[in-house]
Amino acid sequence: MNSRHICRHCGNDTFIVTAHVTQDWIVNNRGEFCECLKDCVEITHAPNDDDVWECQNCGADDPVVLRENEYPVIIPMADFKRYEKLLQQDTVDYQKEGIAMYSCIRSWTAQIDDLSDDSNKIEVNVKVCSSGWNENIWTVAVMFDNGSEIGYSEVCNTLKDNWEFDFDGKTIVVVPVFVEDLSAKYTEFTTYSFSIPAKEFFEVTALLHRHPLDSDNETRCYKNPVEHAEWTFEIDKRTSVTFFLLSNEAKTVYWIEGSAKVTNELGAVSSYGCAFGRSLSNVFSFENVNGKSFTITIGAKKEGEESNEY
User: How far is CA 291 from CA 14, 70, 188, in A?
Assistant: First the structure.
């Protein structure tokens, strides 16, 4: 069986299922059980899609069933209701909704574990992004290999659709799974605030403002990006996030990208996708980075301030 099961209530992916096995027993001369000699001699019935799958976390028994090449991106139902409503509007009141222009305002990550190994970490980041002041918002899905972009979807205006990618001759389908009550590992975000020199902050802000996106909201028009600045912030002893000021080759579009990295006990470094924004004032979200979720804000460093965290 190659299908995948995800609890639609809490997002858990471990279940209690009944399997049928044969055992070797020691019995008395009447054939009555005395002792089990071997717990499992043969499996006569392994779990399949028609069995009852009880979520080990919340006990629900109606999971979402995905095919072999389908991978879930877990989206809280509250997020879906909020952003889907906004996605269907031609214009959005950014001030009322607390949305920054030309920014990634929310994202969720799908881990493509079957295609990942020690040298490749494949994941897909589904983003909700904003446009110019009070214009529409939209979605895009981006595939990463060790934090480097290797593919992206068409821009669309819904979270209901699947996102398809071609990877190494295979079709990868990312399926949104809207869950009612996410476990803490998905919902508990820690907020970190960092700062960069005030002069640099305002120069970068002005540069981003002078080079707006194209009117058709095409955000992935930049290949072979040019790096203009970078800042690295330490989250803890093993986790850091590096932000880059980038432009396309023609330097007609500028944007901010952040990449999270985790170093394990052996010194190996793993990357966890990217956060995208059109403003340093954006709130950058990183979900399930080695089991932790957090947001980062970047401000202007006050005169005489020593630390970049405030």
Answer: 16, 22, 11
- Please enumerate in sequence order all residues whose Cβ is within 8 A of that of 12, keeping only pairs 6 or more positions apart, or say none: 6, 55, 56, 57, 58, 183
Nearest-angstrom CA–CA distance, 33 and 87: 64
Rounded-to-integer distance, Cα 195 and Cα 298, Å: 5
> What spatial distance separates the first Cα and last Cα of the chain, rounded to whole Å?
51
Where b means 16+ CB within 10 Å and e means fewer, 277-296 reads: bbbbbbbbbbbbbeebbbbb
Q: Which residue has the higher pLDDT, 53 or 146?
A: 53
Tell me what percent of the chain is helix, strand and coil, each rounded to the nearest 5.
10, 45, 40
Mean per-residue pLDDT for 15-34? Answer: 91
Closest CA to 297 of 188, 193, 190, 189: 193
Interval 240-267: pLDDT, tens: 999 999 888 888 888 888 888 888 777 7
- Residue 260: burial class (beta carbons within 10 Å; 0-12, 13-18, 19+): buried
* 98 touches 91 (CB < 8 A): no
Name the token pair of 79.
């997020």
Least confident interval from 100-104, 113-117, 182-186, 228-232: 182-186
- How far is CA 16 from its chain centroid? 27
SS3 100: coil
CB 262 within 8 A of CB 269: yes
